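Quick board copy: two proteins, each given as sequence then C-alpha cells.
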Amino acid sequence: MASHEPIYPTNISQGIVKCLNTFRTRHEDEDFEVNIEGETIRCHSFMLASCSEFFGGLFRSNMKEKLEMKVDLKNIPMKTFQLILQTLYSGCELLTKDNVLEVWSAVHQLQIHFLIQHCEDFVLNNISLDTFEAYKRYASFLQSEKISEGVFNYKLENFMTLRKTEIFLRLDYKELLELIESDGLVVTSEDLVLQSVFEWINFGKACISAVVNDNATKLTSSTEVITHSSKMAYSSQGIENNNVSSENVNEVKEVTDKSNSNDISQDSLTKTTQTPPVDQKEGAPSAPSQY
C-alpha cells in the first residue's frame, strides 16, 4: 500500500496552535529556564526541542544545561527571543523591516529552520536601494546563497537606478566586473555601461586625491590610499573582459593607466603608509546586526 503525506486540515492546525498558545499563557509546567541579559524566561522544553535543533541537541546531551534545565543565551536580545517564543506557540507574524535582520540572526543561532526560511522570504520581498547592502552583509555572514543571489539579481535588474547612486561608485572592482559581465544586466544601451565605468573610475581618482590631500598622518588615510590605488590598478586588468563594446575598452584602459601614473606618485604612497600606528578601540560589530 502506497504511503501518503499526511493532510493537515486548516481548522485542526489552527486549533492546535490556539491550544498551545493558551497553555503558554497559563505558565503551567514550564520546566526550562533561559537566561538572557540578566533576565530569566521560563519555557517548555518540549516546545523548544521540537522547533529548534540547538535546543534539541542540548536536551539529547548530558551537558550541564540539560542536567540543570537552564541555559545562558548570548548574542540574542531578550525582546527578540520573546518574539520568537511567542511565534512558536501562537504562529503569529514576527517580522518587520526593522527587526528582520536581528530575528534572522537569532533563528540561525537557534537553528529553527522554518523561521530561517520565513526570514529569507521576507528579505527577498523587501530588497531595495535602502536595504540591499545590509542584506548582502548578513547573507555573507549567515552563508545564505539564496539571499546573495537575490541581492545580485536586484542589482542587475535595477542597474539604471543603481548607477546614479554613490553606492554604485563605491562598489569594489570584483562587484563591478560581475555586474557588467553578466548577461542578465538590464540596460538601455551599452554606452551607458561605459559611461558608468568612467564615472566609477573618476570617483576612485577623486578619492585618491582627497586622501592624499587630507591629513597624511592619520592611519585611516594610508589605508584608503592603498585601497583606492589597488582599485584603480585592478580596473585596467579586467575591464577588457566585460560586455562593453570592444572599441571603447582601450579608452577605459587609457584613462585608468593615466590615473595610476599621474594622480599619485609612488613616493607619496610610501610616505603615507609609513605613518606611525595609532591606538584603535575594539569595536567589532555584534552578530550580525550584532555584526
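And the next:
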Amino acid sequence: MNDSVELFDGANDHSRLLSSLAGSHSGETLPLATSNQIMLRFNAKSGQSARGFHFVYQAVPRTSDSQCSSVPEPRYGRRLGSEFSAGSVVRFECSPGYLLKGSSAIQCQAMPGALAQWNATAPTCIVPCSGNLTERRGTVLSPGFPEPYPNSLNCLWRIHVSEGAGIQIQVITFATEHNWDSLEIYDGGDMTAPKLGSFSGTTAPALLNSTSNQLLLHFQSDISVVAAGFHLEYKSLFELEQEDGVKMSPVKRLNFKPPEKLSELVEQLLRAEIHSDVCVAGPRCPAPTS
C-alpha cells in the first residue's frame, strides 16, 4: 500500500475529506476548507522511505454570494490581480522556463442561491519536456526543475531566431547522472546538424555559440537514478558576417576613407548613419560608398 497524506475539512478524521495524496505532486492548489480548521493525517505503510512533503497554508476570507475564495500564486509563477469579488478576473503567468498548465485567467461568478465561485481552477506552472522557442531570449530547464528530473525522459527543444542571427547558450547549472543521462546540442534544426557537444555529469562549458540561427537540444534520462538537472539561458546574437573564412561580430559597419583633415572626418560622420562599430578602410572593409 502506498504512503499517503489525507486532509480533512475540520478538527478530526470524521470531517469531510478534502484531499488524499500519494505518489508525486507539485505546485497543486488543494480544495478550500469551509471551516477554520484542517486536520492532516500522514500514513506511512509501504516500508520504503521517500522525499516527504511540504505544504503551505494560509487563512483566507470565507466565501459569500458575492465573494470568491482567495487564489494563491502558482508555484514558479505569479498571480495578476487581488480582487476576488463577483465579476473580477484574475490572471496568471509563469516564470521563464515554465509553462502555464490550465487557464491563464479565471473569473469569479455569482451563483443564484449559492456561494460565488471561480469558473475554473487556478493553473499550475510546469517545465515542459519539449518546446519551440522563437523569442530573442529564453530559458531552458530540465523537467521538474529545481527538483530532480524524472526517469525515462526523451525531450527536444528547438531554438529558432531571426535569419542571419546566431545563438549563445549560457549554462547556469548542470548536473545529470554521469554517462547515463545526457544533453546533446546540435548546431541546427535537427539531429543531422553538426553536434556542438554531448554533456553528462557536472561538466559543461559556461558558454556555447551556434554558427546558425537554429539549435536543437535533446535530453535523455534512463530508467534509474536522477540528478538535479540543468538551467540554461539563451540569447540571439546579431547577424553573423563571413569574411575570408572567419566569423565576425555581427554589426552593420560604417565605412569611410581616412580623412586628411579633421573637418573632412566631421563632414563624413554627419552624412553617415552612425552605428556602434566603425570599420576604417582596410583589407577587411568593403569598398567605401560614395
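Board note added afterward: The chain is about 5% helix and 40% strand.
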